[in-house]
């Protein structure tokens, strides 16, 4: 294990989220996609990101920043809802292509005055898992125990995705980030993710779904002996699934990360060149591997273009999490 300090892991998780999001953005939900080797603009036929500049982040990173603001205020479902709603308004509200299906439903209900307890009861897509990296970082920095960690994840999910599948998937990603932040060996990062996925199924509104923890283990085994990035992208897209359900995209993100052995550059490139929700699988894989390998493992040119294009100050973002964690 390389000796990486906690601050570098924090910035690695955040850069991994943002660079994965931006690298995966152009290929998101395309029928036929090119193999990307660098940051590209959103192509004209992109259903959600046409005209986006190369390096531009999407809802994954923007909502992760909204969660960070909520963490600074004494974390609660109310503060999460308020900051997500501020983001929702900032991107154009109900007419925006940038808002996923569960979050759209929840934010419109929030606007209409629906009680918080009712908002996220049907959200099973990956909108809560895609934004969860700051919770994994915060939980590591604040030394959260198992129950406290799950409370944080559930609170982050509650306004939009308060369901057992979404909490299970979000817990899996956050736990992997947390374990990586704590310096765990790679196999223990995966094991922490599997365990948290199982625990997460006990939270929120129970809805049937495949076993995310078991799918993570299966997906990691499925790719273990593949011999190229192309084979991993293809196999995971066809068999595990890389679409919006968190039962697909979360195991996919772990499988990409596992094959890459925690290298964020490799994991992000594979995720961005898979199918379906490429910005989200790349953001999740980037967060996990960024925490594991630290910010220096994320190519400097990626960080430069993402920082410049979005006016993103990761150092300041990381400081906010450090402040929130006390
Ligand atoms: Mg996105």
From TrEMBL:
Q: Which GO terms describe its molecular function?
A: hydrolase activity; metal ion binding
- Please tell me the species this chain comes from: Pelagovum pacificum
Instruction: Provide the family line.
Output: Belongs to the ADP-ribosylglycohydrolase family.
PANTHER family, per the entry:
ADP-RIBOSYLGLYCOHYDROLASE (PTHR16222), ADP-RIBOSYLHYDROLASE ARH3 (PTHR16222:SF24)
The record describes how the cofactor is bound as:
Binds 2 magnesium ions per subunit.
Which UniProt keywords are present, listed alphabetically? Hydrolase, Magnesium, Metal-binding
**Binding sites annotated in the UniProt record for Mg(2+):** 58-60, 277, 279-280
Name of the protein described by the UniProt record: ADP-ribosylglycohydrolase family protein
Q: Kindly list the cofactors needed.
A: Mg(2+)
Q: Which domain of life is it from?
A: Bacteria
**Does this entry carry the keyword Cell wall biogenesis/degradation?**
no
Gene3D superfamilies per UniProt? ADP-ribosylation/Crystallin J1
């Amino acid at each position: 294990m390389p000796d990486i300090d906690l601050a570098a892991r924090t910035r690695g998780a955040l850069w991994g989220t943002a660079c994965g999001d931006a690298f995966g953005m152009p290929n998101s939900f395309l029928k036929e996609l090119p193999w990307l080797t660098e940051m590209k603009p959103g192509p004209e036929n992109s259903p959600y990101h046409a005209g986006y500049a190369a390096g531009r982040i999407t809802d994954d990173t923007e909502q992760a920043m909204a969660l960070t603001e909520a963490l600074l205020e004494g974390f609660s479902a109310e503060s999460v809802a308020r900051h997500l709603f501020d983001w929702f308004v900032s991107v154009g509200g109900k007419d925006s292509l940038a808002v996923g299906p569960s979050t759209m439903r929840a934010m419109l209900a929030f606007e209409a005055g629906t009680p918080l307890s009712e908002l996220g009861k049907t959200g099973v897509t990956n909108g809560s898992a895609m934004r969860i990296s700051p919770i994994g970082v915060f939980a590591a920095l604040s030394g959260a125990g198992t129950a406290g960690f799950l409370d944080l994840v559930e609170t982050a999910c509650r306004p939009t995705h308060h369901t057992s599948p979404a909490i299970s998937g979000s817990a899996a990603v956050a736990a992997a980030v947390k374990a990586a932040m704590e310096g765990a060996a790679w196999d223990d990062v995966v094991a922490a993710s599997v365990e948290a996925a199982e625990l997460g199924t006990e939270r929120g509104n129970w809805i049937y779904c495949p076993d995310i923890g078991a799918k993570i283990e299966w997906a990691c085994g499925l790719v273990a002996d593949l011999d190229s990035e192309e084979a991993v992208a293809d196999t995971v897209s066809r068999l595990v699934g890389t679409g919006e359900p968190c039962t697909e995209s979360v195991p996919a993100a772990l499988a990409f990360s596992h094959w890459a052995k925690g290298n964020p550059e490799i994991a992000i490139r594979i995720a961005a060149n898979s199918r379906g929700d490429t910005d989200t699988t790349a953001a999740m894989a980037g967060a996990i591997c960024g925490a594991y390998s630290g910010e220096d493992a994320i190519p400097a040119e990626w960080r430069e273009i993402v920082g410049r294009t979005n006016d993103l100050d990761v150092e300041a973002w990381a400081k906010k999490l450090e402040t929130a964690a006390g």
